[in-house]
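Chapter summary example: a protein plus guanosine-5'-triphosphate.
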Amino acid sequence: MVTIKNRVVVPLEGAETPPEFITFNGLVEEHVAIVFPQLKPGNMPPLVRVHSECLTGDTFGSLLCDCGPQLHEALSCFSREGGVLLYLRQEGRGIGLYAKLSAYALQKKGLDTFEANRHLNLPEDARSFEPAAQMLKALDVNNIRLLTNNPDKASQLEEYGIGIESIIPTGVYLNPSNRRYLEAKVRHKKHTIPL
Ligand SMILES: Nc1nc2c(ncn2[C@@H]2O[C@H](COP(=O)(O)OP(=O)(O)OP(=O)(O)O)[C@@H](O)[C@H]2O)c(=O)[nH]1
Ligand SMILES: [Zn+2]
């Protein structure tokens, strides 16, 4: 059973009311929840973003993917309205940083993002979103509005017992370097990205 281990208030640039960083007992990886206080009155279920770690995009602003802008969109939206960011340590869709960089090298040779993983004898997508559902339950959040373009996130969360009141797509963060990546997500995994 996953339970809350610790809650620490961390002031963040741009967030008038600082969020809590919450750690958990019972998870295999060190996933963290960042909980922004509800600032908009009403009884809507909280906005939630389940974000998989992307060192290159989230931290260094890589243009090969859309992770960085999606993360910053969620942070600025939650700072204004409130919400829960689950930051999952699932670098490279769960295959890890070195394997993701190997997959990038293969993409330079023409493979798409999913073919590149397979070429490395790795799953196309090694993530399970069960830990996200466990974290939400530990936070007593059982019904959510989910910010994602990935239909698999919503269906896995429902399968693991989280009610999805609505799915809100993120912005479209297209640039010349990530076009093939976004197209592959739409083609293979039915991501809702209007390209
Ligand atoms: N293996 C691999 N992982 C990648 C690649 N590009 C980005 N990632 C990882 O993909 C994960 C993000 O997955 P995405 O498919 O972009 O988006 P998503 O999380 O499924 O869906 P959204 O909720 O709409 O963002 C992060 O963990 C990134 O590190 C790549 O070319 N190969
Ligand atoms: Zn990324």
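Key point: Residues 52-54, 65, 67, 70, 90-93, 95, 100, 103-104, 113, 117, 148-150, 153, 170, 181, 185, 191 surround guanosine-5'-triphosphate (ligand 1) (CB under 6 Å).
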